[in-house]
Amino acid sequence: SVQDVYSTSFTITVQSTVNNPGAISVPATSCAGNAVNITNVTAATTGSPASSGPNYYFYYRGGPSNVGWTMYNGPTTSSTVALPTAVTNTPGNWFVARNSKFGCTGEANNSTTLDIPITIQSLSTAPTSANVDNANICVGGNANISQVGGSLGTGASYKWYTGSCGGTLARTGASINVGPIATTTYFVSAEGTCNTTTCAQVTVNVNPDPTAPSATKSPAVTTVCAGTSLTLTNPTVGPSGGTGTFTYEYRVNGGAIVTAVPTIVTNSSSAATQTIEIRTSSWTGNGCNPSPWTA
């Protein structure tokens, strides 16, 4: 007998299992709050004949809590994506990775797509106020001023200005010593790699040295007879200058300085002219000098 013979042919395409992950890059540093993209330097490739793909998977790890590898995007056909705010808003040292996958491969990475470092730098926050230990001084005095509150970010320091916030730089530091010759307002801000904050301010008032005091002669006459007692009454501080408390000082005929009101009893051997002088001294205000003498 005759038999019919049939044959069927099949074509099988064996697709490549090669997975070349390519390369990515990120900035070495970025300030907290700024958007950061993972840049595709080289796309992933496979062999021939190619299978479907590539699909990408994006990961991060590290930070202040040292989190493990966390996938935040994928699978996606996009070779570049933004870093998540969990990274970009959190200062610290982070690492990113991009894995690639084709239809006939598993996920793969290499030295140019794995553990790519980025440091998120911190922002400064503004001082809430500023303090002064001597708000009122005299010419030649000094005061310590210091910032209160706020925080320093990456590469930041406190800077003090006069005139305005960001005006004329006076000094740098959390606390500084100043000796202005006129009443001056100081402005302090935090300035660093990522930002400059608004300012807090404090004023140091500068008073001139005290003017001479006044007092009343007793008796209030221009000439006296021998045996008369002479003294001063009703001392009054000068009309301007000085700050804080003070002491009255006296001297007779240019002699020793005393703090008690002196009394002179004239006699026939006394000099023809007797002089009692008064001044204010021992001012508690920083830098205040004694006033001139009043005769």
Largest sheet: 5 strands, mixed
The SS-based structural class is mainly beta
Which spans have pLDDT < 50 for at least 5 consecutive residues? none
Strand line-up across the major sheet: 2-7-6-4-5
H/E order of the elements? EEEEEHEEEEEEEEEEEEEEE
Overall pLDDT, averaged? 90
What gyration radius follows from the Cα positions, in whole Å?
42 Å
Report the helical percentage. under 10%
Note the total helix count.
1
Number of beta strands? 20
Shape type = rod-shaped
How far from one another are the termini? 158 Å
Strand content: 35-45%
Write up this protein.
With 295 residues, the chain is mainly beta. It contains one helix and 20 strands. The protein has one helix at residues 85-88; strands spanning 23-25, 29-31, 39-42, 55-62, 67-76, 92-101, 116-121, 129-132, 136-138, 143-148, 157-162, 168-172, 175-178, 184-191, 200-207, 214-218, 229-236, 247-252, 264-265, 276-281. Strand 4 and strand 5 (67-76) form a beta hairpin. The longest helix is centred in the N-terminal third of the chain and has 4 residues, at 85-88.
Element layout with pairings:
Layout: E1 23-25, E2 29-31, E3 39-42, E4 55-62, E5 67-76, H1 85-88, E6 92-101, E7 116-121, E8 129-132, E9 136-138, E10 143-148, E11 157-162, E12 168-172, E13 175-178, E14 184-191, E15 200-207, E16 214-218, E17 229-236, E18 247-252, E19 264-265, E20 276-281
Summarize the structure.
The strands form six sheets. Strands 2-7-6-4-5 form a five-stranded mixed beta sheet, with no helix packed on it. A five-stranded mixed beta sheet has the order 9-15-14-11-12, with no helix packed on it.
